[in-house]
Specification:
The structure holds two protein chains of two kinds. Chain A is of the alpha+beta class. Chain A is built from 14 helices and ten strands. Chain A has a domain of 166 residues: Cytochrome-c3 Hydrogenase, chain B. In chain A, helix 5 runs antiparallel to helix 6 and helix 7 runs antiparallel to helix 11. Chain B has a five-stranded parallel sheet with strand order 2-1-3-4-5. In chain B, helix 2 crosses helix 4. Chain B is globular. The chains are: A alpha+beta, B alpha/beta.
């Protein structure tokens, strides 16, 4: 059982719990189990990480919101005496946009737009999780073709995100040729997204019904994805033969499975710590899906999980395109204004589980709670970075594939 | 497989680039040799940050045009403001502008959302271009090349 969210409604404190692919909303008084991440989730908009450390020579090295090494608007309070990191406290408030409030009282298409703008590099995952929650609320499922097109979107999102993370890791390790080629593939992947959906970040595509006739260039998309996979496979195999590269990532920012589970982290970070968990396995239209795991829990393991998932995602995109082309789609128009009720939906984003809890009334969003993988990822980063040194910052941070936009919403 | 050094020169990734005309102020007299840009995220939804990462890819190869990313605003010619300001980013943004060495210019690129406050309303000095929509990496490069004028 994992705690994914804490919020108040009608003076009651409610917990969002996850057990495999089952989600539930419980009153805190009815839950007997204690969760180590409860306080962290309650304060997720104020600070994430550990408390300030005091001592002889210890100071706060404040990193961000405007520094060369932090591209995103946020602050890392790093407590150190000059070398070893003693504690990390993260302030995500610089990126706070109050999207959960902005979504309230909006119609469905506008709410999808907001969900995509929580975090552009997880835009498709966010809109998927939101729409799945709406489907639960309305007690219906989208048609098979729509669900398969969503799988393509989710996997395309995974491909470019993973390529970006691995290119950042190789750049941090001064593997400039590898980094340059991976960056090239990253741009290729963004262009492939554009070919697929007319958006480099896969926006304005998702819906309760996705018309397959809108996708005219699926063959070209499949060809480009195949090309990316072949080039990436060659680069990845070559990178594993580079001792300089491996040595930099090996045993850096280690996070064991017990700690990862306590934090509530999901996605590649959890799988790199040896936990065989990926909620895509429960989805009906993922054919021949396999979960990739590593057991060291370090930056190298996280990189390996992402690399192998990239190749797997490429195969899945190609297979899904092949299937969709042969399928007929029923044009069952869904009456959005009839959707009322409560629902929760999730999506396995490139960096972990995105979850939406939604209340709908006649097609209008009444309230929403968003659980994002970056909240847990920042805590995982803060905990795993302790004991290492500042030059490990870029490897440690980049390996989690997280950002402040996703965290602060 | 070839060593990295040899592998690196076997594939040419850089593409020819044709800039589009943009409504920006030309600064080619001041920034005739090189242009150092410092991007600052003031609360965008993330896609402009990723477009900046895309701008650094070999396809665009911005260094051939004399364009570089500065590591600090104190080394920058142009401050590229990405997105609309969250409340907490207004003061850090103003302080960043104070740190820019003269002469400097500011470009504002928003992400097409309604979040936060437009940096255009903050009375920042030397704003030479403003976009209320999201720009892609190629479009951002076009804007920068319009500032520096035609040179290779």
């Amino acid at each position: 059982m994992r705690l994914l969210g804490v919020f108040e409604k009608d003076s009651k404190e409610l917990l969002i719990l996850q057990d495999r692919n089952q989600l539930s909303l419980e009153n805190i008084n009815d839950v007997k189990e204690d969760f180590a991440n409860y306080t962290m989730l309650k304060n997720r908009d104020k600070h994430i990480g550990s408390k300030a450390v005091k001592g002889n020579g210890v100071f706060n090295f404040r990193y961000g919101p405007v520094t060369g090494g932090v591209g995103d608007a946020g602050v890392f309070n790093i407590y150190t005496y000059g070398e070893r990191i003693l504690s990390v406290d993260i302030d995500p408030g610089y990126k706070k946009r109050n999207i959960e409030i902005l979504i309230k009282n909006t119609a469905l298409h506008q709410a999808v737009n907001w969900s995509e703008n929580v975090c552009s590099n997880f835009a498709f995952s966010h809109s998927c999780a939101f729409l799945r929650a709406v489907e639960k609320a309305g007690n219906f499922r989208s048609d098979e073709v729509t669900q398969r097109i969503r799988i393509i979107g989710i996997e395309l999102e995974r491909i470019y995100n993973h390529l970006h993370v691995i290119s950042r890791l190789s750049k941090g390790a001064s593997q400039n040729v590898l980094a340059s080629h991976l960056e090239g593939l990253f741009e290729e992947a963004l262009r492939t997204n554009n070919l697929f959906s007319n958006s480099r970040f896969l926006k304005h595509t998702n819906g309760l019904f996705i018309d397959k006739n809108n996708f005219k260039k699926l063959d070209e998309v499949a060809l480009k994805v195949k090309n990316v996979e072949e080039k990436f496979r060659e680069l990845y195999e070559h990178s594993l033969a580079s001792w300089n590269f491996i040595d930099r990532l090996y045993k850096t920012a280690m996070l064991d499975q017990k700690k990862a589970l306590e934090i509530g982290v999901t996605g590649p970070t959890l799988r790199a710590a040896g936990r065989r968990e990926d909620l895509r396995v429960y989805e009906k239209f993922y054919d021949n899906f396999k979960i990739i795991t590593k057991d060291k829990g370090d930056v190298l393991a996280r990189m390996q999980v992402r690399a192998e998932e990239t190749m797997l995602s490429c195969d899945m995109v190609i297979n899904q395109i092949d299937k969709i082309k042969k399928m007929r789609q029923n044009h069952n128009k869904i009456d959005e204004s009839s959707i009322s009720g409560f629902g929760m939906g999730y999506c396995e984003s490139p960096s972990g589980l995105v979850l939406y809890s939604v209340n709908m009334n006649k097609g209008i969003v009444q309230d929403v709670y968003i659980s994002t993988p970056s909240v847990f990822g920042f805590k995982a980063f803060a905990d795993s970075f302790v004991g290492y040194i500042l030059t490990d910052f870029s490897f440690s941070f980049d390996s989690f594939g997280i950002n402040f936009a996703d965290c602060a919403r | 497989m070839k060593s990295w050094a040899l592998y690196g020169i076997t594939r040419k990734l850089t593409e020819p680039f044709k800039k589009l005309e943009e409504n920006t102020k030309k600064m080619d007299k001041i920034f005739s040799k090189s242009l150092n840009i410092y991007p600052i995220d003031v609360g965008n939804n993330g896609d402009l940050n990723f477009e900046m990462a895309a701008l650094a890819t070999p396809q665009y190869n911005i260094h051939r045009f004399g364009i570089f990313f500065a590591d600090s605003p104190r080394h920058a010619d142009v401050l590229l403001i990405l997105g609309r300001c969250s409340e907490k980013m207004i003061e850090p943004l103003k302080e960043t502008v104070n740190q820019l060495p003269e002469p400097f210019s500011i470009i504002i690129v928003e992400d097409g959302t309604d979040f936060g406050i437009s940096a255009r309303n903050l009375d920042l000095p030397n704003v030479i271009a403003y976009y209320d929509k999201k720009l892609e990496a190629g479009e951002i490069l076009s804007v920068l090349l319009n500032i520096t004028g035609d040179r290779k």
